Amino acid sequence: xxxxxxxxxxxxxxxxxxxxxxxxxxxxxxxxxxxxxxxxxxxxxxxxxxxxxxxxxxxxxxxxxxxxxxxxxxxxxxxxxxxxxxxxxxxxxxxxxxxxxxxxxxxxxxxxx
Length: 113
Hints:
Mean pLDDT: 80
CATH architecture: Beta Barrel
Largest sheet: 6 strands, antiparallel, barrel
Order of helices and strands: EEEEEE
Strand order of the largest sheet: 1-2-3-6-5-4
Radius of gyration: 15 Å
Helix content: under 10%
Number of helices: 0
Number of domains: 1
Number of strands: 6
CATH topology: Thrombin, subunit H
Structural class: mainly beta
């Protein structure tokens, strides 16, 4: 019988798609993508595999800068710029998408609840 794991996350995840620009320390072109989910403590991104390194987080810079917009209404977007650390990087079975988990260096109040 399967047992359900207790949720250990400090911040609630929200399924919110919003534009993200990711800058790394390698002085390459910024990566422009959309969130998979978002919380006050971090985010998950799904990146086309050709735009992301294969394999583990050690191939990513330890820290990245993110800029993203959270829609509040059709007329209002809140813009956030924050430093984050890559905590997970894994490709799908067919190697088409790389999933990247990031933790913000300092949690922010997104007021999404």
